[in-house]
């Protein structure tokens, strides 16, 4: 039961999740993070740390549309093992609907 990052992360990237993950299984895209489903040990400590409530267990119905995206991009994007500053405008995008359609970028982050 790995945990999954949903579109609520897009353009927020607070990265509080990265700081607490014991196995460093977050990967960084240009404007969101994903979790590698085979590396996540299902500890769940990242879920309550996310200010955007973007992380859910894969048993949650909200996870389903994002499972494949997490799997695909965690093999393409660089690993992230330290917290970096959030984007200055992150709060403006917190909780906004349909962020995938509006803003998703397949480009890798700069880790
Ligand atoms: S804390 Fe939440 S919004 Fe921030 S990078 Fe992690 S998953 Fe994305
Ligand atoms: S559930 Fe645990 S292992 Fe999985 S991404 Fe979150 S902190 Fe990392």
From TrEMBL:
<dbReference type="InterPro" id="IPR017900">
    <property type="entry name" value="4Fe4S_Fe_S_CS"/>
</dbReference>
<keyword id="KW-0249">Electron transport</keyword>
<keyword id="KW-0003">3Fe-4S</keyword>
<dbReference type="InterPro" id="IPR022569">
    <property type="entry name" value="Fd_C"/>
</dbReference>
<dbReference type="InterPro" id="IPR017896">
    <property type="entry name" value="4Fe4S_Fe-S-bd"/>
</dbReference>
<dbReference type="GO" id="GO:0051539">
    <property type="term" value="F:4 iron, 4 sulfur cluster binding"/>
</dbReference>
<keyword id="KW-0479">Metal-binding</keyword>
<keyword id="KW-0411">Iron-sulfur</keyword>
<dbReference type="Pfam" id="PF11953">
    <property type="entry name" value="DUF3470"/>
</dbReference>
<keyword id="KW-0677">Repeat</keyword>
<protein>
    <recommendedName>
        <fullName>Ferredoxin</fullName>
    </recommendedName>
</protein>
<dbReference type="GO" id="GO:0051538">
    <property type="term" value="F:3 iron, 4 sulfur cluster binding"/>
</dbReference>
<keyword id="KW-0813">Transport</keyword>
<dbReference type="Pfam" id="PF00037">
    <property type="entry name" value="Fer4"/>
</dbReference>
<comment type="function">
    <text>Ferredoxins are iron-sulfur proteins that transfer electrons in a wide variety of metabolic reactions.</text>
</comment>
<keyword id="KW-0408">Iron</keyword>
<dbReference type="InterPro" id="IPR054829">
    <property type="entry name" value="FdxA"/>
</dbReference>
<keyword id="KW-0004">4Fe-4S</keyword>
<feature type="domain" description="4Fe-4S ferredoxin-type">
    <location>
        <begin position="1"/>
        <end position="30"/>
    </location>
</feature>
<feature type="domain" description="4Fe-4S ferredoxin-type">
    <location>
        <begin position="31"/>
        <end position="60"/>
    </location>
</feature>
<dbReference type="GO" id="GO:0046872">
    <property type="term" value="F:metal ion binding"/>
</dbReference>
<dbReference type="GO" id="GO:0009055">
    <property type="term" value="F:electron transfer activity"/>
</dbReference>
<dbReference type="InterPro" id="IPR000813">
    <property type="entry name" value="7Fe_ferredoxin"/>
</dbReference>
<dbReference type="InterPro" id="IPR050294">
    <property type="entry name" value="RnfB_subfamily"/>
</dbReference>
């Amino acid at each position: 039961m790995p945990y999954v990052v949903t579109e609520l992360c897009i353009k927020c990237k607070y990265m509080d999740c990265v700081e607490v993950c014991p196995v460093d299984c977050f990967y960084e895209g240009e404007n969101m993070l994903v979790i590698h489903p085979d590396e996540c040990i299902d500890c769940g400590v990242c879920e309550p740390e996310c200010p955007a409530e973007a992380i859910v267990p894969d048993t949650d119905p909200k996870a389903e549309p994002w499972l494949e995206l997490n799997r695909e991009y965690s093999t393409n994007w660089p690993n992230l093992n330290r917290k970096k500053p959030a984007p200055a405008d992150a709060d403006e995008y917190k909780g906004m609907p349909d962020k995938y359609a509006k803003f998703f970028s397949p480009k890798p982050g700069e880790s």
